Amino acid sequence: MAAQTRALVSAQWLADAVRNSLVGPKLRILDTSWYLPKTKRDPRAEFMQKHIPGSSFFDIDECCDKNSALDHMLPTPSQFSQYVGDLGIGNDTHVIVYDTNDFGSFSSPRVWWMFRLFGHSSVSVLDGGMKNWLANEYPVTSEYSKPEYRQFKATVNESWVKSYEDVLENIRTKQVQTVDARSAGRFRGTEPEPRDDTLPGHYPGAINMPFTSFMDASGKELGPEALSKLFREAGVDLEKPIWATCGSGVTACHVVLAAHLLGHPGVCVYDGSWSEWFKRASPDHIISEGEGMKEERQ
Fold first, then answer.
1. Under 8 Å between Cβ of 164 and 203
2. Per-residue pLDDT reduced to its tens digit, 10-28
3. 207 SS3 class
4. How many CB atoms are located within 10 Å of the residue 297 CB?
5. Residues 63, 64, 246, 268: which is the catalytic one?
6. Which of 76, 95, 101, 155 would bridge 123 by S-S if both were Cys, CB 3.0 to 4.6 A apart?
7. Are 247 and 270 in contact (CB under 8 A)?
8. Contact (Cβ atoms closer than 8 angstroms) between residue 177 and residue 267
9. Is 111 in contact with 7 (CB distance < 8 Å)?
10. What three-state secondary structure class fits 179?
């Protein structure tokens, strides 16, 4: 499976691996749950109470650039290597990521993307996440034993990460399609952003594809036909370059995953996303239908 790792694995596949005691140095499971502060959920505490047997907790607020004023921006390759090595992951480990969100997947595609960004292609998202795992009545546990440290050597594909300046330049040149994975209300400026210091809206030229649209009601990823239709109806050409954005670089990775599943692995992520854009952009680069949003911004 290593050479051509599937981007998704089923709950059935993972349950079999757990039952056959395959979790270890060659197969690691990570609970990558993350929630916005407003949800008042503590994913680490939830992990300690209940997780897929053999899994460890991956915290995107820990494995990040601590010097950035923005939340969970990407760590350096050496920080990433140290962090995942501490979770018992080596360069030959098949990593399975999942999260506990009610949608099925929320933050796990971000960690899937991070592994790939840092040169590790042997990584898969658990299709349907914990939601689907529990629906199938597969086992959970509160037991945890820390894996033994393994050496991990990261390389980084910097071309996959886009900056504020890149997006600003692209607004001028219109060379690349940019897809925003936030909800339609936040994108249009009619629903509030979850961060108190940020108003909703989007930047010129962005196309809205809410991350929830890539999953069905059970939380599983849509099939290839339905995914292709989503991109087509949004007016996004998968044959041409795409950059993904969202609130803070997390759900943007659903766009990357969906394109990857359709055979287009190179979607880039604007890491700072709307959190950074709103703080730095001039008013004419903030498009919002929201009443009073414009006035507040001026």
1. no
2. 999 999 999 999 999 999 9
3. strand
4. 15
5. 246
6. 95
7. no
8. no
9. no
10. strand
